[in-house]
Records
---
Amino acid sequence: MSQILSLRHYSHDHIAHSHDHAQLVLGLSGDLDFEVAGLGSRVTRQRFAVVPAGAHHACASPQGSRCLVFDLDDEDSLLGMLGGHADTLRRLLERPAALTLNPAQDQLVHWLAASPLQDPVIARQGALLLLASLANADTPAAEPMRLPLAGLDAFIERHAGHPLQVADLARLAGLSAARFHARFLAETGQTPMDYVRLRRLQLGRELLCSSQLAVGEIAARVGYASQSAFTAALVRQFGCTPRQLRREARDKSR
């Protein structure tokens, strides 16, 4: 049996897995891009994600984040100690959701985070107190879960020099390629591949302005087969050649 409550730090490393118990991931600091069963959200202070038992979930935090994680692998025992609150909490744990804590609950979460969670009595009693608070308060409205765009951006940046397909991005969100394409278009107004193309060109422009790398090397780093193809794409998107972009960057730095 895992520890009921634990502090965890997340980074840009992409984590994706599932487990046979429900979990609550409660934000303490930073922003954590979080996806459960293909639905994306963001875990920040006063916000938490509900991960039902068996649900595939993935997360990444490009800037780093810190969370209190509540593993309910002893769910029946814990809920059995909450009397009339048990049914409310079972319903809460059945579906993926992104929810908001009220100020008192947020204070409780931070108090628990500062407590010796390795003490089984403190961890168990703290967990019960938190569950009772969630059940007893007005049920927070679930916000529509979004695609994990920051995590997708980080993935595109890491793999900009390699072929990328819609299916590669869809896997990060736990969706089929067709469903991901439709969701992405609805949320961003762009197709996934148009978005990838623009991110590559933005990365290329940043490298042109901040490094002395050869244009051909930059083209390869952002996924273009030739310098001429990269130059033509820059001109179409930004109206400038690599040389003009570098000249403008030098002029601005003087």
Note: Strands lie at 5-10, 15-17, 22-30, 32-36, 39-43, 47-51, 57-60, 65-72, 97-100.
---
Amino acid sequence: MLKDALPKVNMALPGPNAKAVLDRRAKAIPGAIKCVYPIVINRGEGAMIEDVDGNIFLDWVGGVGVLNIGYSRPELIEALNEQSQKYFHAMMNIVTHEGYIELAEKMNEIVPVKDKERKTMFANSGAEAIENAVKIARSYTGRPNIIVFSGAFHGRTLLASAMTAKKVYSYGTGPFPDGIYRGEFPYMYRKPEGISEETAIDYYIERLEKVFDEASPAELVAAVVFEPVQGEGGFIPAPIEWVKAVRKICDEKGILMVADEIQTGFGRSGKMFVSNYWEEAGCAPDIIVSAKSIAGGIPISAITAGAKIFDGIKSGIIGGTFGGNALACATALKVIEIIEKENLCDRSLDISKKCRDEFDKWKEEYEEVGDVRGIGCMMGIEFVTDKKTKTPNTQLVTDIVAHAAQHGLIVENAGAHSNVIRFLCPLVVTDDQLDNGLKILKEAIEACRNKN
């Protein structure tokens, strides 16, 4: 079966069938929607995909964090089919469908926001969920401004683009919404030279407090929004001591703390959400936004907050035609069931340890491996020209990604300089597949560093 197969590429990529499809793509689809991989999927199972030429690849990207439970789960297909026999769609503003309520009840049970009495609403994408979280925070607090951070990625809608740090995603598409101000995220690998990690936490908190002095008074800030592990920004985890300090500031100043768990959620961190770790440390967020792996590939996103927050907003500002679609709710419930039943949070930690041990060896072995970081199965390897200068090595990562694909492993870059390789492998990967992937990636590093 494909889900148990190992990577095997029989030809230079793209193969003839893939080339024909990619030629059609170039004519039919905007070139601005880029794809750097010469691969056209035919089918997928588990952590593996087969292309239209019969080549088999191990997927360490998983739809950028969408496929935590893997491709083509029979249980998911069955849940989708069962719901499709009843109805595809019922808009919650018109008639009530029970799947929406059942999924909201489950999310209220498992999503660790600060308040124990919780409510959840659904949208269609991560960017939509972020936009709704901002609207909710502004309506509830009566304040206009939002603080985000360097390295942030929150989506490509107009508001989300304004919140996103990397402006290549929004160049030339302004003017942008007002009221978005940016602090400095605690990028510990690139903290100011000569200071300890403890001192660095104080430094980054001071940088946040400076936003109140120079950009927006705290009394006008509705929410502080950040990713527990920055995704597009380079897989940079928020240090727990910094999160505690942000939580304290928010409590003192009446600001809502919003965790963007779009990419970090649903088992990837070793817990259902990174915010579970925060909850244990006494610094749970007020609002959690989730998407990506929530429904195994069916579009849906969620905003979960304390009931008093939802009950304190203006009527009519939230909702939408397809939010909480019946098919998506059915599959999301099944995804959560699979994660819990198969202990995929524990599996995430097993995978993480195996990979982290290997990545750390590479850090010792290769001058170009500057940093290895992350939480659970959301890990990044940052490549530099040398460890002393830490100059981003973008070309090396570009070459590694291309080399790995030609040998059966799909990996993706990240970071402001695209010099980080991200690890988002489905949590159902087998040990043999994982070993093969590590072998291919190491060979790619060696081949490409020797070329440069």
Note: The first helix runs from residue 16 to 28.
